[in-house]
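We store sequence with structure; for instance:
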Amino acid sequence: MLNNYIKIAWRNLLRHKSNTFINLSGLAVGLACCILIALYAREELSYDRFHENSDSIVTLGVEHKQFGTMISTPYPLAMALEEEVPEVERATRLRSIQNLNLSRDGQDYITIDQIQYSEPGFFDIFSFDLLYGNKEFALEAPGQIVLTKRTSQQLFGEINTVGESIYWMQEDTTIVLEISGIVDNPPQNSSITFDALVSFETFPERYRKPGSWGAYSFSTYALLNGPEARNVLDEHLDVIANRHYDNANSKFISIPLTSLHLSEMSYNSGFTGNAKYLYLFGSVALFILIIACVNYVNLSTAKVSLRAKEVGVRKTAGAGKGQLAMQFLSESVLLSFGAYLLALLLAEVAMPWFNQLFGTHITGGENMMFLVWLALGAIGVGLLAGVYPALYLSGFSPSVILRKNLPGGRSGAMLRKGLVVGQFGIALVLIMGSMVIYEQLRFTQSKDLGFDGEQVVAINLPTQQAWQMRHTLRDRAASHAGVAGAAVANGSPGNFHIRLSDDPETLSPDNRAQTEEGITIAPAVVDYDFIEVLDIELLAGRNFSREYPSDQERAYILNRKAAAELGWSPEDAVGRRFTLDNEGEVIGVIENFHIASFHRDIEPVVLQIHESGGWSSPGRLLARLQSDRIPEAMNFLEKEIAVYAPNLSFSYEFLDEKFDAMYRTERRLGQIVSLFTFIAIFVACLGLYGLAAFAAERRIKEIGIRKVMGATVTHIVALLNKDFLKLVLLGFLIAVPLAWYAMNQWLEDFAYRIEIGPGIFLLAGGAAILIALLTVGWQSVKAAVSNPVDSLRSE
């Protein structure tokens, strides 16, 4: 019986080639999108599940009244967890350091991305595979380092280097470490990443104080005695927090390790580690598949007259409703399975571009069970798409059919119209979304940053000696003919690493702030030429000057935002008392300039000449280059930096490229949404084309009569097109509020954003109407210019 169903289904699919092509191609494209997004979702949801006890590992975090929620915790927390919380079997700390310089011989250093200071309990909690060495002792003593397989090969050309020595340059000092183990490279789906692990006993003791509950600079993880233990863990955390924080400014929280990657505290960039993009792309892929399924339902019910007599004859011959329904479902499942096989091919071909666009590393053939589940899903899609046509067609009465009273009137037509409205509603939401994304990107690229970063290079000063000799470096750089100006600072646009918070009264007794809450500022040590080199506008007062020796100890320059936070206008701020490190005064106010992306609001900035005793940040040389001598100037600057860091890599970035890179995710999002929009429109237009062909075929005699009676081609084309245009317009009316809400939610992530005006919606609606006209127009014109004699001959 099943074999018979498949044979008949195959014959019917071959008989109606145009319908089969439209349904097959639409379903294949929709399924290919779903396969790629499913692989992406599987990768995102698999993070940290490779650990043996993944369900019992938690990450600790802090909810701070002033700094917000963060996963940086104080040093003593891990010890308190082991001593005071019975549900904690083991706790461990990590401290991450980036861009480390390592060498096998103390001469040729290479820069690796990340080192984690780690405790002996690291390998007891996490299931990273230690290839060589003893996990109980590998991180126990000072001066021990565990390299990843990749780092060991990079440094030594081989994997097993246990017992070898390695040199680690820290600013102006070199530390010799012993390689105590080799660990396998962390998997791609690990939230904890590293190129090497250094024993925690190597970390300077001054940072490991048992009473330092106010310094949030460590990552803390705990292994619980079971997943259910987390229910009582938070109560113990509240007790610990109340004991050490009098003013309830801080509260400890716990997050399952398997949930960290998609949480707001993952600090990932791009489309990885962001749950909203997972939902967004999953929804769009599902919508495209729904559009393809709609095509199947529409074309199946529209072609009812072609199958009605078949149903009547079969029922007269004794076929039951269930048998007929099974026949039609067989066609649908056969079509969907064929579409699935084609979709696998499309997904495999598209995967390299997908990985490049999404920033992922997914592969398709590594998990056969996953492919089996996808195949079952495709069959399920076929059943869902075919169930209504099957029940609808199998329910015809043979007596009615054979008297030529063919069914398929009002209810079927209303369903098809509703589905077309839904199709174009979804497509229009995507069109409007892509237009809003591109408008926001254009806004970010055209908005004034408050400084001129064109051809300004920021070069890292990698050693303390280079920073101490920064003024000599600056003067040497400025002397080159390819350098228009140079300055040094430990904070520059895109690289203000320090944030300090204090109450207005402490910052200045002259403040007029309307609040007693703390003000968070971004400070930087700069030189006399910093403002001039970056071309930042001076609003009031003066710049730092060598003619005023007191500037080296007492002078501060605020940006407009910092002055406003203290209740001052730019003019009013000049001469006011101000204390950050030393007691001094405000000598000038500059215009606001962006130190981060447009996702964040302008921050209060304070500039000073004198060194700080309480905070520090890596220094940089800023040089504005002549456009026609950039290579020559860069070679000169590299040689100058090498004088004070002879064995370290030359690291730099151009400020305009730095800010441009901040919106790489948004650009890629615009490309992805545009691609999805094109696919959705393509699939929707396939269905619209099929319906237009059917409508023209069904009304061919009416068109012949109208032409005989004198109707023009224009009149007939308009007659055939107007019904479809009404559906597109209705889809437009439904899409506008949905798109407006969705894109306003997306724009909330930007502190500086566009306003969504009616022009975007009208342009999208016009584009949809034009697309619909082009889609159905060919069939309409073809029917309108046909010879009426051919269509009326049978009459």
